[in-house]
Write a structure and sequence with these properties.
The structure holds two protein chains of two kinds. Chain A is an alpha+beta fold. In chain A, about 20% of the residues lie in helices and about 45% in strands. Chain A starts with a strand and ends in a 6-residue tail after the last strand. Chain B is built from one helix and 15 strands. Classes of the chains: A alpha+beta, B mainly beta.
Chain lengths: ~240, ~130
């Protein structure tokens, strides 16, 4: 049974026609289901968990990256399948998962290619994409195995799943997270950045002072950040054009 | 060169690692490592890198400085800018002009006590 969780922004009249087309196409494909609408004072986690308790097996986030993140935060079991139906302006997730925007996504949803994706956990907060941290002095501890210290100013990112860039492609199904250390190098002719990449399962990044990390766009204050990978944490519907 | 089974690890220039760096995949070192380096994949040590460690890898290409023993199961290439202080055990060795090696080099098939021949890397692992 499907449940479609509509973002509150989709209440805007400019989406009426597109949503009507989507609902018609879903009915044609035989995958129509209950519609739940997110609203300002409606707690999304309770709403989605209620639907799962009532027998829903597939939760479809209809909207943008934020909508998908809210759905992922609410789905805490490995049985329920999560899907994304991108509508409106989009971030990275639609492209990463290979989901076209709008009505075309209905056919991809219907094909139902389910992948089991890893998630990351930082200080008890789950993330699908990445955690970015800016701050001067830090050390990285990989258990008792080794300690990493940057010798000059550096920024840190821990990735699970991201748009392919200068760092390359991160595989969200390999059971590992990647620590990325960027060290800018300034010279008279050309500025460049040295990039270090270290794959890991668990790791601690300790700062001298408290900093604010960006966990999939949400702020997280802290001094010590304990990371671990949660292998196969999510079952997500993906398209053939997925970036992993 | 053969690829390891895991993802690649890169220690960038400007980063120091102290401890045991163990990996399934290939390792690239451009910064500093103090401790042990061991991989089932290949190893590349950049020209600005400093590695004070005992090293084990399938194949290795060295342009930087190593202070420690290195065991390579396949081919070891020492580029002209490389400086090596320690013992080398490898099957195949290529040394560029100007590369410095201070230590013993053990390569190819080595004689065992029973008179048979063993690969150099296996003989050192057993000793």
């Amino acid at each position: 049974m499907y449940c479609y969780v509509y973002d509150e922004a989709l209440q805007d009249r400019r989406f009426e026609r597109e949503l009507a087309q989507i609902e018609t196409r879903l009915t044609d494909l035989g995958i129509a289901g209950k519609i739940a609408r997110l609203a300002l004072f409606r707690e999304p986690i309770a709403l989605i968990r209620d639907e799962i308790r009532n027998g829903v097996t597939t939760i479809v986030a209809v909207g943008n990256d934020t909508t998908l993140r809210r759905v992922i935060d609410a789905v805490d079991d490995k049985k329920t399948v999560v899907a994304f139906l991108p509508v409106g302006a989009q971030g990275d997730m639609a492209g990463l998962l290979g989901m076209p925007v709008g009505v075309a996504a209905c056919d991809v949803l219907s094909a139902r290619i389910v992948e089991e994706l890893d998630a990351g956990d930082v200080n008890g907060k789950r993330f699908l994409q990445s955690v970015r941290m800016e701050g001067a002095h830090f050390t990285v501890h990989h258990g008792k195995q080794y300690v990493i210290t940057p010798l000059r100013k550096a920024s840190v990112e821990v990735r699970n799943f991201a748009v392919p860039d200068d760092v390359g492609v991160q595989n969200p199904v390999d059971g590992l997270l990647s620590l990325i250390i960027r060290l800018p190098k300034f010279s008279l002719f050309k500025n460049k950045t040295d990039i270090g990449i270290i794959p890991f399962e668990t790791m601690t990044i300790a700062y001298e002072k408290s900093i604010t990390a960006s966990v999939d766009g949400d702020a997280l204050q802290g001094k010590d950040f304990v990371f671990r990978v949660i292998p196969k944490a999510l079952r997500l519907v993906t398209g053939k054009g997925r970036k992993f | 060169m053969a690829k390891g089974t895991g993802p690649e690890t890169i220690i960038a220039f400007g980063v120091r690692l102290e401890g045991d760096l163990l990996a399934e995949g290939d390792i690239v070192i451009e910064g500093e490592v103090h401790g042990t380096v061991k991989t089932k994949g290949d190893l590349r040590i950049g020209d600005q890198a400093l590695v004070e460690a005992n090293i084990e890898a399938t194949n290795a290409v060295v342009s930087g400085e190593i202070r420690g023993n290195i065991t390579v199961h396949g081919k070891l290439e020492l580029f002209p800018s490389s400086k090596m202080t320690g013992d080398v055990v490898t099957e195949v060795l290529a040394i560029g002009p100007g590369a410095r090696v201070n230590g013993t080099i053990n390569m190819g098939g080595v004689e065992t006590a029973k008179g048979g021949k063993k690969r150099a890397a296996e003989a050192v692992n057993e000793s």
